[in-house]
Q: What sequence folds into this?
DNA sequence: GGGACGATTGAA
DNA sequence: TCAATCGTCCCA
């Protein structure tokens, strides 16, 4: 069953771990569906979080983070990889979950390549989209947490907050 | 208008 | 350890 807006419009620290074990579905124009299980995510939370793109205020790139939960936030990194994020919480509260890993693709850049996700998905609504959405599976996997990856620039506190969630079963 | 820099990856 | 590669952001 497809996750609805209530699932997404909660605090990112609740949504992020809840996304583990869920099924990310990508439906192509050909009609083929690629279904993968989310295994690794990271939470980015508000303007105080120096690791979060929203920490420097609203910009052209991050504006969708300030919209309601359930929308897709996609951006290009290192000039070659698209990062797939799920916006959470409510309007004006900028939060997002970076999906870092799924079954069949063990990295954020690899999974967007596998699922053919690019800038055209910016602002896509996971609640109503016909080409990408997330389904509940009824499975509640156990998980572990670690600091987030690749954000040393965020300083000693924010670079070490244990907001990376990894499925452990 | 110009320069620095990534929420990464894969090869040396 | 290091290059690839370019849109975004910030300063001038």
A:
């Amino acid at each position: 069953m497809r996750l609805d807006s209530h699932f997404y419009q909660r605090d990112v620290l609740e949504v992020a771990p809840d996304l583990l074990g869920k099924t990310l579905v990508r439906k192509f124009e050909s009609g083929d569906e690629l279904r993968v299980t989310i295994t690794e995510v990271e939470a980015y939370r508000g303007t105080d979080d120096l690791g979060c793109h929203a920490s420097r205020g609203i910009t052209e790139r991050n504006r969708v983070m300030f919209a309601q939960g359930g929308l897709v936030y996609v951006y290009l990194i290192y000039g070659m990889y698209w990062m797939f994020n799920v916006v959470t919480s409510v309007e004006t509260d900028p939060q997002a979950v970076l999906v870092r890993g799924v079954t069949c693709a063990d990295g954020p850049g690899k999974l967007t390549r596998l699922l053919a996700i690019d800038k055209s998905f910016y602002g896509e609504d996971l609640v109503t989209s016909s080409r990408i959405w997330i389904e509940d599976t009824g499975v509640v996997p156990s998980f572990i947490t670690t600091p987030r990856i690749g954000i040393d620039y965020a300083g000693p506190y924010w670079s070490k907050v244990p907001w990376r969630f990894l499925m452990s079963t």
Q: What stands out?
A: Chain A is about 15% helix and 30% strand.
